[in-house]
């Protein structure tokens, strides 16, 4: 992995700023302790072991997802090459949120992320489409990005969703896919969504951000070596500097408004702050 120079001070502007750091709630502290005990490890093993363990450990338990989605109508989609599910509250307001789940490109699904997507559907009172994209190693880069692009086009071309009434959101790998999707849409001349939300986005598969090393031992979920392991499974023999997989290396001009959320103790802190700076 190549080194980048030290990160410069964050430049704030009226349209792009960082909020004050907030202390974690007791619920977050309990969750962090559980994740550190059950999930975090120095090595995930070889490719087969990494995939098996991550698919067993990542994401919310199925029963929790079902409990959180009570009073929502869930419709499975598997047509026109698009897979995923709609989550819809009763008397939903106009507008759609497209959600792209995380999981290191190798694990998780719409069902593991229902606590998030169900909360979005209930609190926003908008329909949520949760994408089920292809995962590595069965389908490596750029399959996940191709599926994200296809789903966005399906929403606006086949489902009649107005881009001005559409938000795109994703966490971790899904956050990186969201950003890569926005850049592809801009460069292809396809109407952009109204806004996007990136939760702890993984935008640099080279692991070159300073926080990837500085937060070693502080991050509750990953160690520094894990980044290269998951990146290798997703990319195969492709370069980790490809902007389509590491969108932090893209030009960020003319994108819609972004809300970026990340913890100060994460390895991926600089993956978020460098996007804000650009």
What does this molecule look like?
There is one protein chain. The chain is of the alpha/beta class. Helix content is 35%, strand content 15%. The chain has helices at residues 26-38, 47-57, 62-68, 114-124, 143-157, 173-188, 211-214, 224-235, 269-277; strands at 72-79, 82-89, 96-100, 127-131, 166-171, 195-199, 258-261. The protein has a seven-stranded mixed sheet with strand order 1-2-4-3-5-6-7, with helices on both faces. α3 packs parallel to α4 (114-124).
What's the structural blueprint in terms of helices and strands?
Elements: H1 26-38, H2 47-57, H3 62-68, E1 72-79, E2 82-89, E3 96-100, H4 114-124, E4 127-131, H5 143-157, E5 166-171, H6 173-188, E6 195-199, H7 211-214, H8 224-235, E7 258-261, H9 269-277
Parallel strand pairs: 3-4, 3-5, 5-6, 6-7
Antiparallel strand pairs: 1-2, 2-4
Quick summary of this structure?
The protein has 278 residues and is of the alpha/beta class. It has helices spanning 26-38, 47-57, 62-68, 114-124, 143-157, 173-188, 211-214, 224-235, 269-277, and strands at residues 72-79, 82-89, 96-100, 127-131, 166-171, 195-199, 258-261.
Q: What proportion of the residues is helical, as a percent range?
A: 25-40%
Any idea what the radius of gyration is?
Answer: 18 Å
Q: Approximately how much beta-strand content do the residues carry?
A: 5-15%
Shape: globular
Write out the strand line-up for the largest beta sheet, numbering strands in chain order: 1-2-4-3-5-6-7
Largest sheet: 7 strands, mixed
Oligomer: single chain
Helix segment count? 9
Tell me the span between the first and last alpha carbons.
21 Å
Mean pLDDT score: 91
- List unreliable stretches of 5+ residues: 1-16
Overall SS class:
alpha/beta
The string of secondary-structure elements, in order, is: HHHEEEHEHEHEHHEH
Number of strands: 7
